[in-house]
Specification:
Oligomer: single chain
Structural class: alpha/beta
Strand order of the largest sheet: 7-8-9-6-5-4-3-2-1-10-11-12
Bound molecules: S-adenosylmethionine, iron/sulfur cluster
Number of helices: 10
CATH class: Alpha Beta
CATH superfamily: Aldolase class I
Shape: globular
Radius of gyration: 19 Å
Distance between the termini: 23 Å
CATH topology: TIM Barrel
Length: 319
């Protein structure tokens, strides 16, 4: 279905939990965020119903995210049900990778083919500091497992911070020489207090740090809003994502479903459609399709991130 700005909306990002096993400095306060009760979170059956209805308004691609999606029990069985929904053509996952090594095989067997792994530094000590306690070795085990099992593409998300990892962009780009990894450098979005104050770096500045080495190239499957480059002869690619300095709202194709069942037409939208209680009070499929169509119709022309109007961390929206 198209929204009122003629954008075709075919992508839904689903947050399956607001919980996380890390506390990244730009995403969470040190003490974490009070988790929602289990009864507040959509069940797998409810998520499946929403996805089935979403195919009726044209959703074809699903990404599971969070919080950390792999901390929720039973994710492979959710993957299996979603992969079977007629109309869903593409199923992907965004994870911090900590639990991936143990689950990668099962996820792949159940139908997941694409994975984005978040890794903001290559230095173990820095990783521990940026994630407040994470063990980078586990992320590497997850990346290696994903490559070995045959996930394709395997993308690495790097949120770039002036006071955190700007000096590592070359090293990240070098990773793509011998590994078929698609590293994407992302501008930090000032969603809330946690995300502000780490030294915003624009894509232009990131490119200046590595550009002399890169040539433009097409992106991997599911390329989305990134612009892609390649080191000569490299197996992988390097992408840049600029949600702030050159936002891509004009071609935005997504809806978000929060863990507690609110459909958000835009990252920072305050006009979400709360589905959970209506679903639980017996809403029929036709009513559900209508609500999803309403969410699409209310998609704003562009996000209001620059004004800092959001004040919700990414972990609570579903990144
Ligand atoms: N826990 C998983 C992970 O870290 O990959 C999935 C959820 S996380 C919220 C999804 C993505 O959002 C991660 O790549 C993370 O780095 C990114 N993210 C979180 N807060 C952000 C912010 N303020 N600006 C830009 N990216 C952000
Ligand atoms: Fe957790 Fe992902 Fe947020 Fe880091 S970015 S705190 S891993 S939800």
């Amino acid at each position: 279905m198209k929204d009122k700005y003629q954008r075709k909306i075919d992508y839904m990002r689903i947050s399956v939990t607001d919980r996380c096993n890390l506390r990244c400095v730009y995403c969470m306060p040190p003490e974490g965020v009070a988790p929602k009760g289990h009864e507040e979170i959509l069940t797998f059956e409810e998520i499946l119903r929403v996805v089935q209805a979403a195919t009726q308004v044209g959703i074809r691609k699903i990404r599971l995210t969070g919080g950390e999606p792999l901390v929720r029990k039973g994710i492979p069985s959710l993957v299996e049900s979603l992969a079977d929904v007629p109309g869903i053509e593409d199923l992907a996952l965004t994870t911090n990778g900590i639990l991936l090594a143990d689950m990668a095989k099962d996820l792949h067997r159940k139908g997941l083919r694409r994975v984005n792994i978040s890794l903001d530094t290559l230095d173990p000590k820095r990783y521990r500091a940026l994630t407040r306690g994470g063990d980078i070795r586990r992320v590497w085990q997850g990346i290696e497992a994903a490559l070995k099992i045959g996930f394709d593409p395997v993308k690495i998300n790097v949120v770039v911070m002036a006071d955190g990892n700007l000096d590592e962009l070359s090293a990240f780009a070098d990773l793509t020489r011998n590994l078929p990894l698609h590293v994407r450098f992302i501008e930090v979005m000032p969603l809330d207090r946690n995300a502000q104050g780490h030294g915003y770096v624009s894509v232009r500045e990131m490119q200046a740090a590595v550009q002399d080495k890169l040539v433009p190239c097409p992106g991997p499957q599911g390329a989305g809003p990134a612009r892609y480059y390649r080191l000569e002869g490299a197996l992988g690619t390097v992408g840049f994502i600029s949600p702030i300095s050159r936002h891509f709202c004009g071609t935005c194709n997504r809806l978000r479903l929060t863990a507690d069942g609110v459909v958000r037409p835009c990252l920072c939208s305050t006009r979400g459609v709360p589905l959970r209680d209506i679903l639980r009070s017996g809403l029929d499929d036709e009513g559900l399709v209508d609500l999803l169509a309403q969410a699409i119709a209310s998609k704003p022309r562009e996000h209001n991130l620059r004004e800092g109007a959001c004040n919700v961390p990414m972990s609570q929206i579903g990144g």
